[in-house]
Amino acid sequence: MLDPKFLRNELELVAEKLKARGFNLDTQQLADLEEQRKALQVKTEQLQNERNARSKSIGKAKAAGEDIAPLLAEVGQLGTDLDTAKADLAAVQEQVEKITLGIPNLPDDSVPAGADENDNLEVTTWGTIPSFDFEVKDHVDVAEFLNKGLDFESGVKLSGSRFVVMRGQIAKLHRALAQFMLDLHTEEHGYEEAYVPYLVNSDSLYGTGQLPKFGEDLFHTQAETEHGYGLSLIPTAEVPLTNLARDEIFDEEQLPIKLTAHTPCFRSEAGSSGRDTRGLIRQHQFDKVELVQLVKPEDSFETLEQLTGHAEAVLQKLELPYRKVLLCTGDMGFGATKTYDLEVWLPAQNCYREISSCSNMVDFQARRMQARFRRKGAKKPELLHTLNGSGLAVGRTLVAILENYQQADGSLAIPTVLQNYMGGLTSISVK
RNA sequence: GGUGAGGUGGCUGAGCGGUCGAAAGCACUGGUCUUGAAAACCAGCAUACGUUUGUAGCGUAUCCAGGGUUCAAAUCCCUGCCUCACCGCCA
């Protein structure tokens, strides 16, 4: 959510910045509603003031033993006037809120203008793209050959399309990856490990910005009612981790707060029906190790560079070639003001594919969540800044390893840093 | 799931339907005192929004949340959520 005062006072500037990310703000409508809101709010508060004053004088009169009947008669119409004013105000406020909750964050000035992913800016590449002296298989075929380690048929039987069963050494490798990532972030990058709920309430989803606009991307445990959806499955650990700060006021010295968690993520993939139907790339359920930081405003852009580096470290230690991309205005997520994507090299697709997305949300989520901190000696608390990034998507990392570490004989080499997690195993081969 | 108790400011904890944004204590901040510290004493100490050039003033709201009764609700009624205790069940 944007700063309502900024939105009000700089409406045209906001609209212009939003245009860069393909969002059209109806400034006329919003300005009209704001004007109504202001008038109604003043009116309502005046009526309330009058009612309070009169009620108070009735109380005093009664205490003094005076006859209060004439005073009561005077109040007469006030109550109903107040009720209608309140109702009118609530209706307008609801409209304003509906609009403001649906406005995405403003892009930072360092973000390149562009319409879609084709306008993203490649920042760096790392590693050398491997060459194979045999015909490369994609990850599905590599795993199929390795004792049917990825079992999509069973996924369909148990649940439906976009679900998978992993077995044997592939399942273990998947687990090893998550362990490795968590250990790296906690032991070398200073994050605190967290175990969090996989079901969250609607307040949490509003806080990080999944609701109200993106409800159809989530799995809900019950249909939407006026009280929300009840509990919903998390689409990312960003939701529970970031919402830990909701309605909190931290001391300045407590920041930055750095949290990591390994969780499954659930996405309905509504609107992606034809895309990436083969393999592990796009599943309804996948695991991810998430990084979240809560920082002081002046630190957030520097923190974005660091956090992205923490995600890059995973790829580097796994010796997977990747590139770092600065997303353009048109390709960023709803709450982000600046986002780097890390894209890993997939030999079978002969291209880079997204494996991590690291974003600075500045105060966008913090304002929704009322997540604040107080500077030493300061009276007023300030909104903090929130950042998050994948460090990394475990399923897609498994894909990258299956493809980049495949051998001519059909076996799979195990990246050095994972061998300890695999009981010393250096490769996986057919039984 | 059943029964009972309860949810008040950073914490503890008062609060006959009216002058309660809320006693008191603790914590915290500033000051007096002191060579310094402690103690003592004095003062201050919630958040959001609106109005406004204003971190001033004024106004409004907030005593778990949402409804209701009333001229007036922290206080009464209903619903929900949560906490605690005991019972049942369970990994």
From TrEMBL:
GO terms for molecular function: ATP binding; serine-tRNA ligase activity. GO terms for cellular component: cytoplasm. L-serine binds at residues 236-238, 267, 290, 388, 390. InterPro entries: aa-tRNA-synt_IIb (IPR002314), aa-tRNA-synth_II (IPR006195), aa-tRNA-synth_II/BPL/LPL (IPR045864), Ser-tRNA-ligase_type_1 (IPR002317), Ser-tRNA-synth_1_N (IPR015866), SerRS_1_N_sf (IPR042103), SerRS_core (IPR033729), tRNA-bd_arm (IPR010978). It catalyses: tRNA(Sec) + L-serine + ATP = L-seryl-tRNA(Sec) + AMP + diphosphate + H(+); tRNA(Ser) + L-serine + ATP = L-seryl-tRNA(Ser) + AMP + diphosphate + H(+). Pathway: Aminoacyl-tRNA biosynthesis; selenocysteinyl-tRNA(Sec) biosynthesis; L-seryl-tRNA(Sec) from L-serine and tRNA(Sec): step 1/1. It is an enzyme of class 6 (ligase). Residues 172-415 form the Aminoacyl-transfer RNA synthetases class-II family profile domain. Keywords: Aminoacyl-tRNA synthetase, ATP-binding, Coiled coil, Cytoplasm, Ligase, Nucleotide-binding, Protein biosynthesis. GO terms for biological process: selenocysteine biosynthetic process; seryl-tRNA aminoacylation. It is found in: Cytoplasm. Residues 23-53 form a coiled coil. ATP binds at residues 267-269, 354-357. Catalyzes the attachment of serine to tRNA(Ser). Is also able to aminoacylate tRNA(Sec) with serine, to form the misacylated tRNA L-seryl-tRNA(Sec), which will be further converted into selenocysteinyl-tRNA(Sec). Belongs to the class-II aminoacyl-tRNA synthetase family. Type-1 seryl-tRNA synthetase subfamily. Homodimer. The tRNA molecule binds across the dimer. HAMAP family: Ser_tRNA_synth_type1 (MF_00176). NCBIfam families: serS (TIGR00414). Consists of two distinct domains, a catalytic core and a N-terminal extension that is involved in tRNA binding. This is Serine--tRNA ligase. It comes from Catenovulum maritimum.
